Amino acid sequence: MNKIYFSLAILFLSSIRFINAQNNISDLVLTNAIIINNVDGTLQKSSTIQIKGNKIIKIDTNAYHLSKKNKKTKVLDLKGDYVLTGLWNNHSHLSDLLPDTNSLLENESAFSAAYRSARNAADALKAGFTTLRVVGEQKFIDVALKKAFDENVLVGPRIIPSGNPISSHGDGDWLVKSAKGLDAIKKAVETNVESGAEIIKIMVDRMKNEEIKVAIETAHNLRVKVTGHASNEKARIAINYGIDMIEHGYLLSDKTIQLMADKNVFYDPTIVCNLSADYIKERENRIKSAGFISSKDVIDGRTLVAYADERDNTFAKKQRKILQKAIKAGVKITTGSDSNPISEIGLLEIEQLVFSGLSELDAIKAATINSAEAMGMQDRLGTIEVGKLADLIVLEKNPLENISNIRTLKMVIKDGKLVNLEKNEGEKSFWELYILKK
To answer: Which CATH homologous superfamily contains domain 27-85+384-418?
Structure first.
């Protein structure tokens, strides 16, 4: 009954529209583009990308001439703008609020949570995030949203849903599904997958070793990947049991980092949630010095979010060092914001990787090709290649020169269709609705 209830809740959100219908347009051509190769950082100038339906069918450097008889193709002259494959956010909780400044979560209806989740996802798409991996959501709202987006009831990013995180000690955590004992853990994993989860999130630090093993084995038998909220000791145990990804990775040792590299376990550091007051100030100064002056609401809001997760200097420095060691060891990094709204905190996470010592190319890889590979979707997404799905963003400036240039967004293309980036008249910002004090 819950799944039907939430599916209906999502269907009633169809008043939200984000894409130009263009019913008579089936093909799209981007010409005079500079394609960013996110594998090696090279640029392919004066390029043309031809899209048919939802796939890239041709990439070349020849001028494109549209036949006057061809009325189903739209040609966009980018005039030297940069094209990058769509961004991913791999640690999303669509309905969560941290901080919950106005105590909205305390007695919230299911419909309210669903509306906020849909708005959060839609705003993320309009910021360039064409794929969201959800690693913990209440009442399968993420599954219902995926269905709504896939069936074009609403337009939003690709959703990789997880349902509730699973733990044997989830008491007191509104988001976590508590399953005590091996049989209950196995059943919880099976239920999530049967309900539409495409990834399983386990709270590794709150589970016994055998419970971790059963959760991973059950998910893998169902051909579903597993990620885990984990600190060093339990992370190493989960890695040896075959976990696919580690979230946060608090206080990872050199030994654990090397084990992750050896076993090709992906690392989502959520580094934006592990900042000291000094690092928060550093972040704001670097964004401002790059020429990006945000509105007061955005600055106030993202600062509130940052201080809700503030760490002391010692811990923040350790997490930054762990990230640097991981990339040096060859661990594949992905990007995840954890906090909301994804449209802003997701961008901050990508920027923060660079502010924490990674190169611009490493940060872009984390937000694109590494993310697709982590989910086994690199044959469809993650790079700009013929035959892949046309999830693309167009930037005015090169993010390889300054990572904050991901903020110079001019176009988003998802599944071969242009996203309408205009703000709807009268629409309040996410900050005003959910973060700032009313």
So the answer is: Urease, subunit C, domain 1 (2.30.40.10)
